[in-house]
Write a structure and sequence with these properties.
about 150 residues; mainly alpha; elongated; single chain
């Protein structure tokens, strides 16, 4: 029973830390960032990536070993929608991560990256989208946990 609670805690903690890392990126990202801010954004993105992996690890541990049966989850439309949303979030997060990684050459030379207003707006829009999808994931998780299913299956 204790291990089940700890795995659930790890899952929730990683999910909320992932969300906090996204909010931090959103807060720090402007069209004129300092060297220190650019490094903070990169670290926040690294935390985001690590927490995403932990969300998946703890989530799949819960699905296969610690909660209801895998059959329960894989036959629930909200679980499938939740997983689909997580895939979409992961895919759209690639653009900001690649952008941040491209800063490495300048950061090694202690040069702050130069960001166009268009690029900043694009990344901010992606992060906003991720945050909206995270809210949808939370709704799906609540519906799934209570055994609610869509009235019409896909």
């Amino acid at each position: 029973m204790l291990i089940t609670a700890l795995v659930a805690f790890g899952h929730f903690f990683a999910f909320f830390a992932l969300t906090a890392a996204l909010v931090l990126q959103l807060t720090l990202l402007t069209d004129s960032i300092s060297l220190a801010t650019a490094r903070r954004i990169q670290r926040a993105d690294q935390v985001y990536g690590l927490m995403a992996v932990l969300v998946l690890v703890f989530g799949f541990l819960r699905v296969f070993y610690f909660e209801k049966s895998a059959d329960y989850y894989f036959n629930n439309d909200f679980f499938l929608l939740k997983m689909s949303l997580l895939v979409v979030i992961g895919l759209i997060s690639i653009y900001p991560t690649v952008t941040y990684l491209r800063w490495n050459a300048n950061l090694k030379l202690d040069i702050a990256p130069q960001l166009s207003e268009r690029m900043v707006q694009k990344i901010r829009k992606i992060i906003h989208t991720e945050l909206v999808f995270i809210i949808a994931v939370l709704l799906c998780a609540s519906m799934m946990a209570k055994g609610v299913d869509l009235p019409v299956s896909f």
